[in-house]
Amino acid sequence: MKNILIIEDDPEIVKLLEIHLTDLSYTTSKSLDGFLGLQMALKNTYDLIILDITLPNMNGIEICKKIRAEKNTPIIMLTAKSEEIDRVLGLEIGADDYITKPFSIRELLARIKAVMRRTNAVQSEKKNASSIKIDDLFIDIEKRKVQLNNQKIELSPKEFELLVLMANNPGRNYSRTELLNIIWGYNFSGYEHTVNSHINRLRAKIESDMANPHYILTTWGIGYKFNEEII
Questions:
Q1: Is residue 227 packed enough to be buried (19+ CB in 10 Å), middle (13-18) or exposed (0-12)?
Q2: pLDDT at position 57, please?
Q3: pLDDT at residue 186 in the model
Q4: Are 58 and 34 spatial neighbours (Cβ–Cβ below 8 Å)?
Q5: Which domains are assigned to the chain?
Q6: Residues of the chain with pLDDT under 50
Q7: What is the value of pTM for the model shown?
């Protein structure tokens, strides 16, 4: 049974979510406080976190950052704001989806199901491998650790997912839109620049020469691929 953590300070919204999620056979935990919600997220295992941005004691952006530093639990962010900068910020810090209040409960439930399906699809793309060793790059998929020349490389969750996806499929060309859909989901259509920024940050961490990348290559007019010639 899937377990969902709700971090939201509006009791009415929490109650509404609990009723509908229970009807779908999900179990729920809740926190009306940002700091306490973060402690719950870090200490326990959840299949999904529904996270409001505006919370007492700690805002959702900081909570998301701290969760992402330790875990890859899927996160759907809630906010009363609709500005694009908030959506981009949610993408950059690792949110899996983003929905603006007031929202349709039917739409939120659809987003929850979509995020869980996408999480399962990403897991399938990993081909059940426990680790990948290519040249001087070592990826421990189960422990979510990366080493280059025996030195630990710190990657964000999305950087890690991009690396695993492409390293598992060397030579396959991925368009920016395709990477966005696989890693972030269809709800972020139009934010392909986020893929570019994540690829650039990933390259900065694993490439010795950004101008002449060794692992992640640009396929002009298409997108990116992992270098199959070094396998």
A1: middle
A2: 96
A3: 60
A4: yes
A5: 3-124 (3.40.50.2300), 127-230 (1.10.10.10)
A6: none
A7: 0.69
